[in-house]
């Protein structure tokens, strides 16, 4: 009788408290990915130079130096845009992958006691026969 009490207690925990905790864990994963890739900050600073690298314009107007500075700053900004685009796409892909894996883990968690039960009986069947 105590065995059934343990089994029912486990099933109550498995489909109750643990299921809620599983959803909280996946929410924490999503928060981590959003924070790790800092998507909000990347979007806010999308057109800034990469690593804040830039050249200062000369005080005296010299066309060659002015053009050199302009092109250097333009290239650094383009590198920043390319890198931020790559990081934003990587972050969005990670979020989508996490969102797609959540239902699979939820289904796996719901069927896990049944799978364990079947595997125990399958193992006993292999031992006996």
List the keywords.
129 residues, membrane, mainly alpha, single chain, transmembrane
What would you say this structure looks like, in words?
With 129 residues, this protein is an all-alpha fold. It is built from four helices and no strands. The chain has one domain. It has helices at residues 2-15, 17-37, 39-44, 63-128. The model has no long low-confidence stretch (mean pLDDT 90).
Helix share of residues? Answer: over 70%
Number of strands: 0
Mean pLDDT: 90
Give the topology string: H per helix, E per strand: HHHH
- Major sheet description: none
Radius of gyration: 28 Å
Number of helices: 4
Give the terminus-to-terminus CA distance.
Answer: 29 Å
Unreliable residue stretches: none
Total domain modules = 1
* Coarse morphology: rod-shaped
Strand content: under 5%
Q: Give the helix/strand class.
A: mainly alpha
Transmembrane segments: 25-43, 74-100, 106-128
Keywords: Membrane, Transmembrane, Transmembrane helix
């Amino acid at each position: 009788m105590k065995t059934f009490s343990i089994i029912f207690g486990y099933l109550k925990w498995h489909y109750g408290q643990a299921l809620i905790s599983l959803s909280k864990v996946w929410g924490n994963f999503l928060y981590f990915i959003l924070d790790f890739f800092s998507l909000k900050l990347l979007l806010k600073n999308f057109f800034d130079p990469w690593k804040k690298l830039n050249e200062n314009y000369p005080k005296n107007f010299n066309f060659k130096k002015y053009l050199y500075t302009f092109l250097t700053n333009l290239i650094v900004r383009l590198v920043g845009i390319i890198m931020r685009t790559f990081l934003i796409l990587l972050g969005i892909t990670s979020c989508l992958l996490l969102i797609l894996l959540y239902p699979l883990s939820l289904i796996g968690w719901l069927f896990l006691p049944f799978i364990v039960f079947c595997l125990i009986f399958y193992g006993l069947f292999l031992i006996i026969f």
